Amino acid sequence: MAGKPAIVLVHGFWGGAAHWSKVIVELHRRGHDRLHAVENPLTSLADDAERTRKMVGQVDGPVVLVGHSYGGAVITEAGDLPNVTGLVYIAAFAPDAGESPGQISQEHPPAAFENIAPDSDGYLWIKQDKFHDSFAQDLTEEEALVMAVTQKAPLASTFGDNVSAPAWRAKPTYYQVSTEDRMIHPDNERRMAARMNPRKTVELDASHASLASRPLEVCDFIELAVRETGA
Question: How far is CA 152 from CA 42, 133, 148, 185, 196, in A?
């Protein structure tokens, strides 16, 4: 894969970098050896974007940024770096300037919105007994249980953090819609994708956790971005 862009994977709310495990294994099997996965603190969009910028800054050469869920807002904010050649959104938020994930969610509330609960420290969690049905209904109960118990909760205030200058206005973009998503309304995903005028949009019959339930198709999509933006 000499000369190909590095791939930097950015996770979203209620999980960490390990949510990309199946994608990482499959991309590596296909010969991609320049793989990186950001571990975001989920404390604010500014903090997460800065962590992602630092990761990208450690990579020599071009980078394709891939964001899942809230990770899409992160790559939207951090993707303006000169070595970023493309942005891939996997069932992800893609806010415009002055827009936040929370604002987008209010326009078309997701089916599982009521299964999100705050704690006394200001963090938001998906109720453990609702995680499978809310986030990953097309995974096994065991896989969803591990995700539920190990979920990484964001500070609630992060939902309201606005994007400043969206990188998707200047970079080639790709968007994967999950048609059975219960965490981001599929119509919100379609709307965000359409206004970006992406090079390609694909729809998968998948839950919010398409990166885990449909890793082969997600890897195909990432590879398309690598091929088209890696010159």
Answer: 8, 18, 9, 21, 29
Report the domain count for the chain: 1
Q: Give the pLDDT of the chain (231 residues) as one tens digit per residue.
A: 346 899 999 999 999 999 999 999 999 999 999 999 999 999 999 999 999 999 999 999 999 999 999 999 999 999 999 999 999 999 999 999 999 999 999 999 999 999 999 999 999 999 999 999 999 999 999 999 999 999 999 999 999 999 999 999 999 999 999 999 999 999 999 999 999 999 999 999 999 999 999 999 999 999 999 999 985
Which CATH number covers residue 111?
3.40.50.1820
Q: Is residue 1 part of a domain?
A: no
Distance of alpha carbon 84 from alpha carbon 56, whole angstroms = 8
